[in-house]
Design a protein that fits this description.
Length: 143
């Protein structure tokens, strides 16, 4: 689904037979907060890990109350190195197995050789991509 071309609230409800999403991980913020509330299931959880679009303008909190949603925020920047290490260990235990089995796959938008990192940053700054940008390195020669 291309969130800029398709209404993700409708797509979530269609994919869940009207139930809504039990968990939403949001890096955007802004106007998406209200849309997340609409897409969430009753007793759903929303984890805000970024606010690329800034603050949520004129946010109506009634849908959050009506659906008994939990909306929490988290960031790595303010965490200690020990907290970050613990989170990495938890990811390795609870998330990495899904990735290794191919059950969870990142959406790669484009791959760039390392020497084109500036072009990758330009695309990243433009916001025209959907998914991850990957920098690759040439294999080391055995000479």
């Amino acid at each position: 689904m291309l969130y800029k071309e398709e209404d993700f609230v409708e797509a979530v409800h269609a994919a869940t037979d009207g139930h809504g999403a039990d968990i939403i991980l949001d890096i955007i913020g802004g106007e998406y907060v209200a849309r997340n509330y609409a897409a969430a299931a009753i007793n759903g959880r929303i984890v805000q890990i970024g606010i690329i679009a800034g603050a949520a303008p004129n946010l109506d909190l009634f849908p959050m109350l009506q659906k008994r949603l939990t909306h929490i925020g988290s960031t790595l920047r303010s965490r200690t190195p020990q907290e970050k290490a613990e989170l990495i260990a938890q990811l390795q235990t609870h998330v990495w197995p899904f990735i290794e089995r191919g059950e969870v796959k990142p959406q790669v938008y484009q791959t760039f050789p390392l020497h084109e990192a500036a072009a990758a940053h330009h695309l990243l700054d433009s916001g025209r991509h959907i998914g991850k940008l990957v920098l690759t390195m040439a294999p080391l020669s055995s000479d």
